[in-house]
Amino acid sequence: MNLINIKNEQLKTAKRAGLMTHVVAGYPNIEETRKIILLMVELGVDFVEIQIPFSDPLGDGSTIRVANTKALENGFKVKEAFELVKKLREEDGVAIPLLFMTYFNIVHHYGVEKFCLDSAKVGIDGLIIPDYNLKAESRDRLKYFAEINNLHLINFVSLDSDLEYIGNINKQSRGFVYCFSSRSVTGGSQSEFIEIINKLNEIKNIVELPLAVGFGVSSMSAVQKLAKSAQIIIVGSAILRAYEVEGLAGVRSKISELKRGLSTELLDKIQ
């Protein structure tokens, strides 16, 4: 069984939301990326999203875009991402779900069939490719090779998606559904946050798979609030910023803070 499914069942049994963290492979270098991921695993994150750098990552915020650029400037090659995951699985014994995140141009140039086959071989469980759905031919080819290699190709909805579209996405999704937004849950007004939560609850009533949310989560408070309406909380830029300030110690501190937001004891208090 795919590790994403197993983790989803574990989270359901534990009655808590999961934490997915994000790294950019090769930033600041591939060995440091490995150390960051191992620290994340040590601290008990539930999923890790490993981004394969791309020169034009339009779907990402400025912090992650800069990390993509620096990794590429340092000579990062796509094959290094596969080698990294192979080491994490075989040498380090990492047993949580690992997902590749990248853009379709990377997959296309690597070869769609080969990308999916090699991902499965090294131990990747899912693919997050925000722009894979733009062309029907490429979409169908990627979906086919992902499925035969037991890779969950993650689909997206947004807070602004209409209900019919969300229903269609629900029918064709595996693993979980990723909900994104240009609106951040950090720093907004209470009324804006209530609007976000109401929309998430509306989406959750349609989507049968776990709902993952990723839009500007950077604090324990935001995690606490979202954990009532989503099954997976995705945090990327906040951890990267913590690393840039304090290195691995900053990553440890930030993830520990975010994990406290998932405490069932704390969540019970805000029900």
Number of strands: 9
Q: Bin the helical content.
A: 40-55%
End-to-end CA span: 33 Å
Number of domains: 1
Description:
Helix 2 (30-42) links the parallel strand 1 and strand 2 (47-51). The protein starts with a helix and ends with a helix. It is built from 13 helices and 9 strands. Helix 6 runs parallel beside helix 7. It has helices at residues 3-14, 30-42, 62-73, 78-90, 104-110, 112-122, 136-148, 163-171, 190-204, 220-226, 237-246, 248-260, 264-269; strands at residues 18-24, 47-51, 98-101, 126-128, 152-153, 155-158, 177-180, 211-214, 232-235. Mean pLDDT is 91; it is low at 265-271. The longest helix has 15 residues, at 190-204. The chain has a single domain, classed as Aldolase class I (TIM Barrel). A 9-stranded parallel sheet has the order 5-4-3-2-1-9-8-7-6. It has 271 residues and is of the alpha/beta class. The radius of gyration is 17 Å and the shape is globular.
